[in-house]
Amino acid sequence: MSTTSWDPALYLGFDDHRSRPFHDLLARVGAVAPRRVVDMGCGPGHLTAVLAARWPGAAISAFDSSAEMVDAARARDIDAGQADVRDWTPAPDTDVVVTNAVLQWVPEHMDLLPRWIAALPSGAWFALQVPGNLDAPSHALVRELLAEPRWHGTTDLRDGTAVLDPAGYADLLSDAGAQVDAWETTYLQRLTGEDPVLQWISGTALRPVRDALSPADYAEFRAELAPRLRAAYPVRPDGSTWFPFRRIFAVARTA
């Protein structure tokens, strides 16, 4: 799992936009009375509460690799723990697993998924959502800037090979013996404010860059990146900016 530091407040700055895929994912999980529900990569815990509200009789297990996110979740009275998804093994009573915008950070997740499916009890649900926009201008422009002499060697960022497409996840999970529902959605987000796309990716894609640079160098990097993002995502006459937000979903049910 990535050791990138996280800023829960910055991440939650676009909470409405970021949370919508979670609700769309959860809508396809048909569990009625699960014994245990796992929030794998719970972040600041704001969506863990949704799981608890939907299944009030279930034991809720939440964890994240980020100490900052775990602290934020605990501040919401979520009993979250700090752990790496690569070390996770489902308890025998785990009937639902939800992992939202996490597995793109785990290069090994395509090997881990079949193991997790095999370890879950019969009739369990595993629901995942990952970004499908890692090759979009918002991310490609960051990698292009990092390749320039001034920033070369700062850090490596993921590209589209970090995740599969819906058919890829469908094949992987079906081959593991599960029934699968896989799809993708592109949300056209309406962003506002100064350099809104830069602000958006500052809470996610730019975290490794921020960790690798001094505050002054990071400010310089953002200043060089901002006009490139403005050109790729122009401001409309009303002051808003359209930001396509492609997401990939898969829901598997074990045999």
Describe this structure as you would to a colleague.
It is a single chain. Helix 6 crosses helix 10. The chain is globular. The two termini are 28 Å apart. The protein contains ten helices and seven strands. Residues 5-15 have low confidence and may be disordered. It is α/β, with parallel strands linked by helices and 255 residues long. The longest helix has 18 residues, at 215-232. It has a single domain, classed as Vaccinia Virus protein VP39 (Rossmann fold, 3-Layer(aba) Sandwich), CATH 3.40.50.150.
Q: Tell me about the biggest sheet?
A: 7 strands, mixed
Give the termini distance in whole angstroms.
28 Å
Find the CATH superfamily.
Answer: Vaccinia Virus protein VP39
Give Rg in angstroms: 19 Å
Give a quick set of tags describing it.
255 residues; alpha/beta; Rossmann fold; 7-stranded mixed beta sheet; 10 helices; 7 strands; 37% helix
Q: How are the SSEs placed, and which strands pair?
A:
Elements: H1 8-11, H2 15-26, E1 36-40, H3 48-54, E2 59-64, H4 67-75, E3 80-82, E4 94-100, H5 109-119, E5 125-131, H6 137-146, H7 166-175, E6 179-191, H8 196-202, H9 207-212, H10 215-232, E7 241-253
Helix pairs in contact: 5-7, 6-10
Q: In a nutshell, what does this entry contain?
A:
By secondary structure, the chain is of the alpha/beta class. It has helices at 8-11, 15-26, 48-54, 67-75, 109-119, 137-146, 166-175, 196-202, 207-212, 215-232; strands at residues 36-40, 59-64, 80-82, 94-100, 125-131, 179-191, 241-253. It has one domain (8-253): Rossmann fold (3-Layer(aba) Sandwich), CATH 3.40.50.150.
